[in-house]
Design brief:
The protein starts with a strand and ends in an 11-residue tail after the last helix. The relative contact order is 0.13. It has two domains: about 200 residues, NAD(P)-binding Rossmann-like Domain (Rossmann fold), CATH 3.40.50; about 120 residues, 6-phosphogluconate dehydrogenase C-terminal fold. The chain is about 50% helix and about 10% strand. Strands 3-2-1-4-5-6-7-8 form an eight-stranded mixed sheet, with helices on both faces. With about 325 residues, it is an alpha/beta fold. The chain is elongated and about 70 Å long.
Length: about 325
Amino acid sequence: MSIQITILGLGRIGASAGLALGRHSNQVERTGFDYQNAIAMQAKKIDAVDRIEVNLPDSVKQADVVVLTLPLNKVRETLKTIAPNVREGAVILDTSPAKESVAAWVKELFPTKRYYVGINPLLNPLYLADQDESIESATADLFENGSMAIAAPEGTSGEAITLAANLSGLLGASPFFCDLAEMDGLTAFTHLLPQLVSTALLNATLDQPGWRDGSKFAGSDYAAASSSIAGHEESASLCAAALLNKTHLLRSLEATLAALYGLRDDIENDQGEQLESLLEHARVGRAQWWNERHKLASQANELQSAGMPKAGDFWKQQVGFFSRLSGTRPPKREKKD
């Protein structure tokens, strides 16, 4: 007996989740769907899924867990399409950067007894500098020694949240819990803001009269500072995330503008001591964050070893879970070729 997991969206995150879950093939059966059939076929080729489904509604009919790893601008329409086909007791997990909005869509579009839990993977530190979000960068250890932020609407079944936490363990991540607004706030200044700052840098320089020559001078510093916009969401998805996460993001943008104006004022007024202090504060702070991020990974690995369920116990911990949520017995399934 295995849990049926459908992954919608087979880019780096979705395919990596499939690869990690593939190490527990006696526990889960993986169905994959992607709007680009070539990507779905590639996911099957690298064994990120057991089977692919080209029909979106059909892909979720038998799912115990539906995992959305899609660009945000595709999430609402996808939810609307699959809502009639998601069975009672199913848990819907979502990695998009606007959890409050997605939770509201699920409540609006789905019948009762379908349970939404927002997740946000904090990746293995080995891959912190990797900006490529395509399936070519998928790897089974993407989540190892990392954490999984988990948030759910008020009143969500504790068993649905527990399932998300246990599934995080199968991926190699340690869960931590927050509420939807907190997750959106953290996402705004750690995920969305860097992409908008990269956008501002690029738009401020690409159209300058001297860019033809400047492009030859631009090196590693420019590449690093502009890289956040390079490999993440499609522009339409980033736009949707910025607008849906407006309140939190505007607060972060205001703080960033204040910091930039502070640097500008110190430069204009020849405040060398103050300017150097700000630069050093940033340099030291970045180094501390980098070291702490790797230290947290080590602690997460210890927690994973000590407290998280073993892979072989995962299904045992879910026995009765879906029957309690849906009021029916979980069907027996044979693994498909």
